[in-house]
Amino acid sequence: MQRKVVIAEDEAYLRLLIQQSIEELEDEGVEIIATEDGPSALSAIEREQPALILLDVMMPGMNGFEVCERVRANPALKQPYIILLTAKGQEYDRVRGAEAGADRYMTKPFNPDDLLDAARAVLF
Length: 124
Hints:
InterPro entries: CheY-like_superfamily (IPR011006), Sig_transdc_resp-reg_receiver (IPR001789), WalR-like (IPR039420). By secondary structure, the chain is an alpha/beta fold.
């Protein structure tokens, strides 16, 4: 089985940081697909069927909560593990993330090693 991760982050430097945080997984057969907004993330998720989604909340076109809800509502998807990775760290936002169907909520700034460990735990 090919393991895939979709990253959805609109800020280019953060997208690159997230990719670099988990890039060593590529040596273990993981494919990383990066997107920059909600609609492109949803399209990539539907096309690629990733095992893991690293999803920013504040994105143009469709926010991360909406993407998460659409993924969870789509029976054709294999119900990937979703980590919301966002600067919105208030309790209200964490509850909203859980209601949207996220499996985990991590706030920015994040520790790259923690993100790698979380990804590895989901994928292997």
